[in-house]
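Chain A, query sequence.
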Amino acid sequence: MGAILVVVAVLAAWNVVAVPKAFADNYPSWGDVQAARSSEAAKQAQVNAITALIAGLKTQAKAAEDAAAAREKENEAAQFALTAGQNKSDLLAAQATRLKKKSESSHQQAAAVMAKLVRTGDQNLTGTLLISKSADASGLLYRLTSLGKLTSTINGLYSRAAQDSNNAKAASDQAVSAKNALAALAAASKAALAKAVQAQKEMIAALSAQTAHENELQAQLASLTSATAMTEQQYQAGVAARAAAAAAAAAAAAAAARAAGPSAPVTTDARALAQELMGYVSAGQLSGSYPDHIMEIQWIAEGRSVPNCGIDTQVLQVMVIALHTFSSVGVSDINRRCTGQIEGAGIYSQHYAGGGGHAVDFYSLGGRSSTGADANSLALIRILDPRMPYGSGLGQSTCRRNAGNEPSLQNFQDFDDTCNHLHINDPM
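Chain A, predicted structure.
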């Protein structure tokens, strides 16, 4: 029995993620596995079937991952095109405004000079020439020369004003065209984002199915190919033994951290942090909501790099510190990009931007709902504030001000947020 538990401990995974409908039509039961040992032919057939299921899960997960990567590239290209289009539209609009002002200024200047000509040349020049004395001739010629220059100046001003008008109209037409093009770019961007989100969800479904079934299939395969048959009870006992060991290790780590005080150092190793957090999951001290982001922690703990499902080390540390402080913690959001959530600040949220996973939302601390202004939220804020990098984000500022308990902050920069959780994010 002990040897079997050791094998199971290696093969079994933490079954903590709610998984979608199985990707295969059916999976063999442990009864099927035991029955297949009755003959070499039956055993080989079951081995082949299980091997094919395992390969199928991997193939489906890889295909879903490749599709998600392709849709993400298309989404990035569409978002880039939209940003470039918006910048071009803004630039052309500013240029059109500038040229319009220049055109108006040119016309005003021409009109002013024209008014001066009218004031200067309102006398009958022919009559003036007839009655003028020879002594006045030089002065009159000077006036005529000046009027000629003024006329030339006016013609030049009007010519420039006309050119400025043409330039302003051309720029205005370009600005309107660029603005009209934004609608198509925005629609393409929205469609590309929707496809990327759907592909991401399908990839997560495939990976979740693989996570849920592959380890048990591997254990069934080992049972068929080894001298000792394994029962479902033995397999589940191995899973329970692993969970118990992880829970005991997590409890010991939490006890040691609480004894060391809130300033106790926390590792910077992301995988070690994730493994400690999964120990709290096994112990029932860390839970998720819907969609469940615990799977993101699990994959990091297993050493798997899942596209768009990473968690910043600082955020992992925040969760560990929270569990060093309270007996239980509930998280509602980590990496929204991973789960395809477009909500709140959308793609600009710290949960989503930069690959996602730069923020965590706590919906409960110490078994009590978090509002960002409750006693447990305030306690965690005071512990985290001196340890977080300057410029880290803290939600629920209005909730605390309305409750009259906004603390002075050293490194956190707080902002308004809904009062049904406590939001923490690292600087970006």
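The two ends are 51 Å apart (CA to CA). Confidence is low (pLDDT under 50) at residues 1-23, 125-132.
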